[in-house]
Please model this.
Amino acid sequence: MPISSAAADSAPAQRSGERAPSAHAAAAKKTFASVVEELYAAGSITDVQEQAAGSAAAATRSLLRKLPAGARKNNLQDVLDLVNATAANGQLSAGRVPVVTEILARNAEYWNNGALLSYGQRVNFTDGATRIVWQYYPGAGLQPQWLGTFGAANSLAQSKSKKKAVLAQLTQTLDQALALASPRAGGIAWESFFSFSGAAPVWVSSLSQGTAIQALSFASQKLARPDYLDAATSALGIFQAAPPEGVALTVPEGTHYLIYSTNPKLLVLNAFLQSLTGLYDYTQISQNPLGQQLFDAGDTAAQAEVPRYDTGAWSLYEGTRESDLGYHQLVTGFLQNLCDRTQTPTYCSTAVAFTANETTPPKVRIVTVRGLVKKPVPIRFTLSKISSVKLSIDGVVVSSTQLGYGTRTLTWGGRGKPGDVTVTIDAKDLAGNTTSVTKVITLKRK
Model:
């Protein structure tokens, strides 16, 4: 029986699940079921895989006929459309059949009678058959949340506990995740089959893959499972391949590892840093020169990039937009992880600065000195970090909004009488620190 829970998505900032525009059109050509039969006839998948896929497809179609019109039926139809589009677009390889089958089967199980979900809610299936974390994306139904899955495994692998229940849970999680890995870039990868944050399917992420490598490496020691370290080595493939197959984006200083392989324009710092931590830990455990090579290429680029994500008062998410509080704290933690491991000054000093940002009030300076009567008056000011801002004129609030750092303008409607007015700007940053500044400006007729 599935149990839903609300959880913030740890990877992307753009948080809307997006159905591929061509899903319905593609689904009209070939279907998941028909391509599975082609693969089976060619001897590319096993009897067990063919039977599981056929059963999942049949159960989904049967349930769609029975479900009344509404959200559950729509969600299940979304998933079937995406799965069929994967097949019709030529993306359903033999190696992807197990994970796509699981996606279809779990959605059919959930939407039969599961509670309606809001964006980002995670679902745990309590039948004991899966330790995979599932997350709801409108337009894509339930999808494997690989970062959540490997994050949980990583915590277990690095914990000091040797209780049988902990070891069993860790083993089950990794074994199930490995069973759903797909061949990619000469190795294995954990793929996503829906559009997200400008990334078209089928994409992989340096953030989740780096965490997977880290979890497998630590688990190989904790559980005395050398095959897990072998799997971690196989998972290095996407760090060697350029997008869209892999995540290795060549930049002037080295290699930036992408959060989404099919969106090479989105350079998210927290994902990049965590992937480096995963590569570092893998290399320390495996002593594999390839791991060191991949870490060094990314480390050189990261040291050059990190200062560009520091506004002097807050962090940037992807180089232009400021992080929300959760992402600011996340990137701070990742910087500290690398500092602890490497003692690199750039990581250490930036972690200290970002930590201080959480207790430093925003800085505001009112630039406007005069205005004209009988006309709207633009109040220009500088703001050091993203904040909720209130503009007051002579003690009366006239505007309230959230603004990012830089030179900003809020407009007051003005008045018909010349003379001095008192402008006050109150700013409250994402961590709750406040600032209030006041300035007298003069209204003139000309």
About this structure: The chain is about 40% helix and 20% strand. The radius of gyration is 26 Å. The longest strand covers residues 419-429.
